[in-house]
Write a structure and sequence with these properties.
The protein is an alpha+beta fold. The protein is 21% helix and 42% strand. It is built from one helix and four strands, in the order βββαβ. It has one helix at 47-62, and strands spanning 11-22, 25-37, 43-44, 67-71. Strands 1, 2, 3 and 4 form a four-stranded mixed β-sheet that branches. The relative contact order is 0.26.
C-alpha cells in the first residue's frame, strides 16, 4: 500500500518497535509485525496486532512500570 504519511513510499511486511507513553510510564514493545514504509519507515499495524500491543502496554502500566521493554509474542 502507498504510505499515508510521506505519500511516496510503499509498505512491506516487517517488524517495528512501538514506543508508548502514559503519564510517567514508557513502554517499548519490540518485534511487532507491521507494514513498514520503505521511504519514511512509518509503520502500520493491523487491528489484531494493535490490540495485542495495547493489551501488553496496559498490563505493564497497571503493574506500575516506569520503563518496560517487551518482545511481542503474538498469542493468536
Amino acid at each position: 500500500m502507498k504510505c499515508m504519511i510521506c505519500k511516496n513510499g510503499e509498505t512491506a511486511k516487517g517488524k517495528a518497535t512501538v514506543t508508548l507513553e502514559r503519564g510517567e510510564s514508557i513502554i517499548v514493545i519490540k518485534e511487532v509485525p507491521a507494514s513498514i514504509c520503505n521511504n519514511c519507515v512509518e509503520y502500520y499495524l493491523d487491528q489484531n496486532t494493535a490490540k495485542e500491543v495495547m493489551d501488553k502496554a496496559n498490563e505493564a502500566y497497571k503493574n506500575g512500570a516506569e520503563i518496560e521493554v517487551i518482545k511481542l509474542k503474538i498469542t493468536a
